[in-house]
Amino acid sequence: MNVITAYKDAPTRTVDANGVTYAYRELGPKGGIPVVFFVHLAATLDNWDPRIVDPIAQTRHVIAFDQRGVGASTGKVPDSVEAMADDAYDFVTALGFDTIDVFSFSLGGMVAQALVEKHPDLVRKLVLTGTGPAGGKDMDKVAGVTYYDILRATLTRSDPKEFLFFNRNPTGKAAGRAFVQRLEERTADRDAKISTRAFQTQLKAIKKWGRSAPADLSKVTQPTLIANGDNDRMVPSVLSEDLHRRIKGSELVIYPDSGHGGIFQFHDKFAPVALEFLKL
């Protein structure tokens, strides 16, 4: 049987857990510990950059999934990051895994942190990109920045991610356009877009996370890789440094002249770093 190593070719499957049908895609060689991808705010299965996923799927079993109430997954979006972590646990255990590696971005990184706190034995290695800790400085302002950039994108008929993820200089604009084009590489079996209500509920959950008491990150004992751009307007870059300071032994990579989507702008540099870190 041929192993699928291109994300655009991975079929969408479903699994039932706790009354919810979760949509997911898997690729790469089966066996061993899978790398489960935790996606960002407003994102569905179609929002993962193939230039990040595909290199990892060359040697690892990769699984991406739609959170409850998002894309092709059923149910209602929870209004807290902790409840999203409970859903992620239900999904992973429904697939029969008791150990996973986590690759997370933005809101996905918040969910990953909550999952590690609740189920420390489940996660072997943790990749946190474009994200921040509970109670992080200015985290509760994500909603304001998001709505502002959606408006700017609408006025210029652009994809909001070009504004939210990338700097508005020539380098950033080119990187943003290239990223959005890569997300279109999959042509068949595309996911349903997130509903406005689901998106607003996710924003509420992020605000709650930002205003909650700071987590005790000294409890995170998993090897952790943290990455971001140096000018993240959505989840301020200083929060990546904060995570690095508070998670003992963690590695930090900050890319120059890039924003929230720094790992996508520098995918050619970051994918090998992530792959090396995630080695079995």
TrEMBL record:
SUPFAM superfamilies listed in its UniProt record: alpha/beta-Hydrolases (SSF53474)
Protein name: Alpha/beta hydrolase
This protein's record includes keyword Disulfide bond: no
The entry's keywords: Hydrolase
Molecular functions (GO terms): hydrolase activity
Top-rank taxon, per record: Bacteria
InterPro entries to which the protein is assigned, alphabetical: AB_hydrolase, AB_hydrolase_1, AB_hydrolase_fold
Pfam family membership, one: Abhydrolase_1
Domain AB hydrolase-1 as annotated: residue spans: 35-264
